[in-house]
Design brief:
Blueprint: H1 2-10, E1 14-15, E2 25-26, E3 36-37, E4 43-44, H2 46-51, E5 56-60, E6 69-73, H3 100-108, H4 116-135
Antiparallel strand pairs: 1-4, 2-3, 5-6
Length: 148
């Protein structure tokens, strides 16, 4: 580990930190032998950090892997992450409302780039955001928006 830290120092690299779980690897064992550690990380030099001062690193779950994914967002939006206390709830009654189907079709029509699972997650996220915006339009009645 000392050699790794030395290499980081020699290259003027610093850890970018992270959001999410504190570990990035697990041996997936039970019965008192479970080990979880932060092996994977993102590093950058000062020049990179000055180019992307608002970058954000998230540890994300990757199915069928004992490692977490490390996702670096170079330009996170100002509204991310949404506060956790505001949960989105889809209302079944929206299906009867004019415009709901069009909102879903339009939102689902985005073309994210990445793995199949990432693309699916982005389509779901986009649909959630667009439905939330639609439900808060003044033309919708007050019972269309349920945000906890």
């Amino acid at each position: 580990m000392a050699a790794f830290r030395g290499a980081l120092s020699d290259c003027s690299l610093h850890d970018l930190g992270y959001h999410g779980p504190d570990f990035t690897w697990s041996n997936r064992r039970g019965h008192g032998t479970l080990v979880r550690v932060r092996l994977d990380r993102s590093v950058a030099n000062p020049a990179w950090s000055s180019l992307f001062p608002n970058s954000r690193v998230d540890n994300v779950i990757i199915s069928n892997s004992n490692h977490m994914g490390v996702l670096v967002d170079l330009a996170p939006s100002l509204v991310w992450p949404l506060p956790r206390h505001k949960l989105f709830r889809f209302e079944h009654s929206w299906l009867q409302e004019e415009g709901c189907e069009e909102v879903v079709k339009s939102a689902w029509d985005c073309n994210p780039v990445g793995t199949a699972f990432f693309c699916l997650a982005q389509k779901i996220k986009n649909t959630r955001v667009q439905l939330l915006l639609w439900s808060q339009l003044p033309s919708q009645t007050s019972n269309h928006s349920q945000v906890d």
